[in-house]
Design brief:
The chain has one domain (16-166, 173-258): Nuclear Transport Factor 2, Chain: A (Roll). It is 27% helix and 31% strand. It is built from 7 helices and 6 strands. Strands 2-1-6-5-4-3 form a 6-stranded mixed β-sheet, with helices on both faces. The chain is globular, with a radius of gyration of 19 Å. InterPro entries: NTF2-like_dom_sf (IPR032710), SnoaL-like (IPR037401). It comes from Colletotrichum costaricense.
């Protein structure tokens, strides 16, 4: 695969302002694994704009929808809300809905963690835009019907689309100075594998089951399907050069201050 960037942005070195901005964005990216895995939902929400969207192993749901102004009370008392029924990988979700689905998933026993493997940032100082590139491993634990446990580890790239703004943050707190927040988060799935928890036992999925999903998340998709989820077989993978190229085009459009979701809902 050739270099997918068609132009250069501030990414290594630079002046002190560029370094500090890239450090701030990199710090925010790390909030995904640190805050979400620890159920620090208020801290997690502060990473995003009021109307942010995320594309991950996002899940269909049935339940109430709330605007950002009610989020703090929801996070303080999530048990007061209707049950969210997690059923499928479904693409884009408003950040508030994604948080509520994450809370519901954890309450029902889902065990999903994230390991951050390295983060760098593309920055365009004059537009106040940045893209955080976080290499990470998603690891989910499953229980086989024979009683043993196994993990599925999925290596991926988180792509965070950041903007520097001032005013009301996504968590409802007003600030006078400009600050960075993520407006969109989308992933590229690279490869995955099954890890036996006891070092010996792991499921063997039939070839026809694995063939339903792209190589980037084949085992994760097969394992998730055993829980009754519908799996989206069209998520972006590292082997899909066309989809990756469109993602990089979206990144560059974002950095150049194009308005709107820069084609992210089209891939």
């Amino acid at each position: 695969m050739t270099d997918l960037h068609t132009r250069h942005f501030s990414h290594i070195g630079g002046n002190s302002t560029e370094l500090l901005d890239r450090l701030a964005v990199s710090e925010l990216c790390k909030g995904w694994p640190v805050y979400r895995d620890a159920s620090e939902w208020a801290n997690y929400r502060s990473l995003f704009t009021k109307d942010a969207y995320v594309w991950t192993s996002a899940l269909n749901h049935q339940g109430p929808s709330h605007d950002a102004s009610t989020l703090r009370s929801i996070l303080l008392a999530p048990e007061a809300n209707a049950i969210w029924h997690v059923t499928a990988w479904s693409g884009a979700q408003p950040i508030g809905d994604f948080i509520r689905m994450s809370i519901a998933g954890k309450s029902s026993g889902a065990s999903i963690m994230h390991r951050e493997c390295g983060t760098l940032v593309e920055l365009k100082p004059d537009t106040g835009r940045a893209v955080g590139k976080m290499k990470a491993t998603i690891t989910q634990r499953f229980k086989h019907h024979d009683g043993y446990e196994y993990d599925v580890d999925c290596d991926c790239r988180f792509l965070f689309f950041y903007e520097k703004t001032k005013g009301e943050r996504g968590d409802g707190i007003e600030r006078d100075e400009k600050y960075w927040q993520a407006a969109y988060v989308k992933l590229i799935y690279e490869k995955d594998k099954i890890v036996p928890v006891d070092g010996a036992r792991a499921p063997v999925f039939a070839d026809e089951v694995l063939a339903r999903y792209p190589a980037g998340y084949r085992y994760l998709g097969a394992a998730q399907s055993t829980l009754g989820y519908e799996i989206d077989a069209k998520l972006i993978t590292g082997e899909d050069e066309r989809a990756c190229s469109k993602m990089y085009q979206s990144m560059e459009r974002w950095l150049e201050w194009e308005d709107g979701p820069v084609g992210l809902f089209e891939t």
